[in-house]
Amino acid sequence: MAKSVPVHCPTCHREHSFTPPTFPCACGTPLTLPVPPDASPELLAHRTWRDSWVAVRCPSCDRQGQWPRPELGCSCGTVVRLPVLPPRDAEDASEDVKGVTSPEEAAPEAPSDAAPRPRAISKPPFRPVAIRTERDAVMSAERYLRWLGFPDVRRPGNCPAPAASGVDLCATGVVARVDPTTLPTTLRDIECLWLYGLLDSATSVCFSLAGYARDARCRADDLRLPLFVMDLTGTPQPLNEWADELVRRGRR
């Protein structure tokens, strides 16, 4: 599992713990983007399709591919882009890690007659879907909700919500909107989503690719509505305390 790296928001200076995304290489090896631990984030004021991708070489098959550049959304509304080590630097860092003996490797083996230690059951890491189309954005949000513990997530055709409700996904106890547009999600979008969740006695959740208007964020906080931002890696990041709470509940 990829190790988290500390990232400081250049606007509010809040520290975040960012886990670099992992993608499946064509050879079948999980490929984690090599984000350095001392990463200096770049303020993202304008997103272009070309700059949203980065070349990374697979350490197993030496194949170089294009992957979504990692981004992080801060609760203050700032979106930053994180640097990725060049292919050669990433290989050197990988070799350094291989040469270090882990505590598990250095520890002596337990006697054969010793009682086996109970193994902690950990949740598998979330596997994102790289976002290239609107359908990918909905698919990534659907996969994320399943990962949080909503196995019966379904699309609008199987939801009781009317088409004009702004609901893109629903499950037992939750309804969700996925906004893949390049404009911030509006106050009206948040209020419509919350109203439908209220009628359905469900938690309303919103995923946005371009973030949220200031009044929309304030209203969501008042309504206790979880907000998530998504980057092109397809990894949702919680944007307010209600999203953090939903993640905590889902990871139990």
What average pLDDT do the residues reach?
79
Rg calculated over all Cα atoms: 20 Å
Task: Tell me the quaternary state.
Answer: single chain
> What is the CATH first-level class name of the largest domain?
Alpha Beta
Report strand order across the widest sheet: 10-11-12-13-14
Please state the second-level CATH architecture of the largest domain: 3-Layer(aba) Sandwich
The biggest sheet, with number of strands, parallel, antiparallel or mixed sense and barrel status, is:
5 strands, mixed
- Total helical segments: 6
Structural class: alpha+beta
Using the alpha-carbon principal axes, give the shape: globular
| Overall strand count | 14
Q: What fraction strand?
A: 15-25%
What fold name goes in the CATH topology slot of the largest domain?
Trna Endonuclease, Chain: A, domain 1
The SSE order reads EEEEEEEEEHHHEEHEHEEH
Head-to-tail CA distance between termini: 18 Å
What's this, in brief?
The chain is of the alpha+beta class and 252 residues long. The chain contains six helices and 14 strands.
What does this structure look like?
Residues 102-119 have a biased composition (Low complexity). Residues 88-98 have a biased composition (Basic and acidic residues). Residues 87-126 are annotated as: Disordered. The protein is α+β, with helices and mostly antiparallel strands. It folds into 2 domains: 5-81, no CATH class; 134-249, Trna Endonuclease, Chain: A, domain 1. It is built from 6 helices and 14 strands. It has helices at residues 87-98, 103-106, 134-148, 187-199, 214-223, 241-250; strands at 5-8, 15-18, 22-24, 30-32, 42-43, 53-57, 64-68, 71-73, 79-81, 169-171, 174-179, 203-208, 227-230, 236-238. The protein has a 5-stranded mixed beta sheet with strand order 10-11-12-13-14. α4 runs parallel beside α5 (214-223). The radius of gyration is 20 Å and the shape is globular. The relative contact order is 0.13.
